[in-house]
Design brief:
binds oxa(dethia)-CoA; 5-stranded mixed beta sheet; 32% helix; 25% strand; Peroxisomal Thiolase, Chain A, domain 1; alpha/beta
């Protein structure tokens, strides 16, 4: 039987209208544009405010991104078989965000579910989506990654709030017998609760007056510890996936890294010897959108991509969760140029 591969056939994305720049950030907490640019590489971030979202949460971002994807690809909504949403900020514990998105888009023949793997969520979701297609059971699915990180950001904590922004992206994945698409992944998870977590709101610490008073419903991060693990684990994963697939600095077209800190992104690229102009970077105006960073990179760089380009995705997040994937890009960016 011919081998089935899972190929990306389109990209959608959405970032909210409101832009919170470093000048405004420096009026919220004790920080400066210089510090944020030098230590993180962020100039501004998009924030989903109440007046735009009108009661919805991350599903609003996914819905906009998927609407764009459908418009660009002109896919028949009845042919969408599944929607996977990688997010740490679902609208509700239940129903799933995917369920809301499927309703908003009117996908009559789809099932959907959410996946939570923090900032590595989209990387994991692509692997799950590709496996569903490679199994032969599904032909066309949508994989989304995104977060309304502002909903869990403590705007009284200067060590975390400048890092994050809101946004979401998505890809259409389809079956092909060509040698293109998601070829290989190296994914890992370990157990490091302390350096990066949100303490309350789950079943371990249910919401209470005390948990709200102690501000336990926000991101807690020990930045330096997370930084070191992120650089080491992402670099190791990229090296492993490159070696396994005979990818070198000469034949890698793009590294697509999680946008956590520009210093992490360049350190990972340096380790494998790939020049910075082959690294997708949009952290300066997007910040860290958690599950949204990888698809939003694709969204912004899509017009530069060419059929046959070798892409290595890599991400790192709470858990810890991390890994790298190798994708052979299937179409010239001009296919969807506006
Ligand atoms: O996406 C999930 C994975 N997350 C990551 O990968 C994030 C990894 N970590 C990082 O990106 C960095 O560690 C941070 C951006 C979080 C922090 O940068 P850093 O260079 O590691 O700074 P630091 O925490 O070591 O702090 C250095 C100094 C401290 O002052 P002292 O103690 O040296 O006097 C902080 O108090 O900078 C101070 N500082 C700030 N100053 C101005 C911390 N935050 C700020 C701020 N503005 N916003």
């Amino acid at each position: 039987m011919e081998k089935i591969n899972a190929v990306v056939t389109g990209v959608g994305g959405y970032v909210p209208k409101y832009i919170l720049d470093n000048d405004e950030m420096s009026r919220i907490v004790d920080t400066t544009d210089e510090w944020i640019m030098e230590r993180i590489g962020v100039k501004s971030r998009h924030i989903l405010r109440d007046d735009e979202r009108q009661g919805a949460g991350t599903s609003y971002l996914f819905t906009k991104a998927v609407q764009e994807l459908m418009q660009k690809t002109q896919a028949d909504p009845d042919t969408i078989e599944a929607v996977i949403c990688a997010t740490t900020t679902p609208d509700y514990h239940f129903p799933s965000t995917a369920s809301l998105v499927i309703g908003n888009l009117g996908f009559k023949n789809a099932f959907g579910f959410d996946m939570e793997a923090a900032c590595a969520g989209f990387l994991y979701a692509m692997e799950v989506g590709a496996s569903m297609i490679q199994s032969g059971r599904h032909k066309r699915i949508i994989v989304c990654g995104g977060d309304m990180v502002s909903s869990m950001t403590n705007y009284m904590d200067r060590t975390t709030c400048p890092i994050f922004g809101d946004g979401a992206g998505c890809v259409m994945m389809e079956a092909t017998t060509e040698d293109y698409g998601l070829i290989d992944s190296y994914l890992r998870t370990d157990s490091h609760y302390e350096p990066l977590h949100m303490a309350a709101g789950g079943s371990a610490q249910m919401p209470s007056h005390e948990s709200v008073d102690k501000r336990l419903h926000f991101i807690y991060q020990e930045g330096r510890t997370v930084f070191k693990y992120a650089v080491t684990n992402m670099s190791d994963a990229v090296e492993i996936i490159a070696k396994r697939n005979n990818l070198t600095k000469e034949n890698i077209a793009w590294i697509v890294p999680h946008q956590a800190n520009v210093r992490i992104e360049t350190a990972v690229a340096r380790r494998i010897g790939v020049p910075e102009d082959k690294v997708m970077i949009n952290i300066e105006h997007m910040a860290n959108t958690s599950g949204g960073t990888l698809p939003l990179c694709l969204w912004e760089y899509e017009s530069k991509l060419k059929r046959g380009d070798n892409l290595i995705f890599t991400a790192f997040g709470a858990g810890f969760t991390w890994g790298a994937s190798y994708m052979k890009w299937a179409y010239d960016g001009s296919k969807f140029s506006k």
